[in-house]
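Request: How about a record?
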Amino acid sequence: MSSMKIAIHGKTFAPEFDDSIKHLLKRIQELDHDPIVESGFKRVLDDRMSKARDWKSFDNPEELVGYDLLVAIGGDGTVLEAAIWVRDTEIPVLGVNTGRLGFLSNVGIEEIDLAMDAVAAGKVWFEKRLMLQVEVEGMELGDFPFALNEIAIMKRDTSSMVAVEVLRDDVFVNNYWADGLIVSTPTGSTAYSLSAGGPIVMPGSEVLCINPVAPHNLNNRPLIIPSEGNLQLIAEGRENQFLLSLDSRMFILEGGRKVQLTTAPFRLFLMNLEHQEFFSTVRAKMHWGIDPRER
């Protein structure tokens, strides 16, 4: 196989993974003699090992144009950050997990050789994940107003609730009185939304889930809608200041401001190994099919 161009992004990891990460870096360098490493992660590596010392670093997304692969080392949160790096380039992301099994970082540390052999042989498949685009009138959301998992509007203090009015294409859906409201993608259905009682949605489904957190009215259940169209959320409440989160990025939202959600014009490409599929990950993570008497 001809040389690939590979970028590496990661989070600090436990010392017990040092040898595995060294091995991964060695395998990456077999495919790209000159890989580049995100500058914050390069400092972590330089601190712990000499392997990447003379590799170049990157600290803005433009530097990744023309790359073939971004390897994200960490957990699912690292893959969320990887989405910010690759943006709309369609550079696929391969998540290598240095913690508990992830839904996005689905290559275990013990599968590094398997994964790099598959990448070298082209025995991989790509999954396109839809993302949400967020606009708030009169508010700056930084240079990446997109979310892969969910956007959420939450109350800021412990006492009062938030009332979120939801419209879809200008048609009134509901007014949710709750601790907060989550709008999740299929990718995010196994994240925060799941903790709030939402359904598991198979990736690749072009739907969104509207899910209230601790609703005041117990008849308010999660609602699945097609992903096309325009969602409008307007939060009101005694406090009049709320938290707006795009995945793990937080903003202060003034009450009464319209939050507009549409699907992003691009998709995140995840690289998967041939044997990987969603249901086996769900079964492993959720302990499905295990007889409770044998646990």
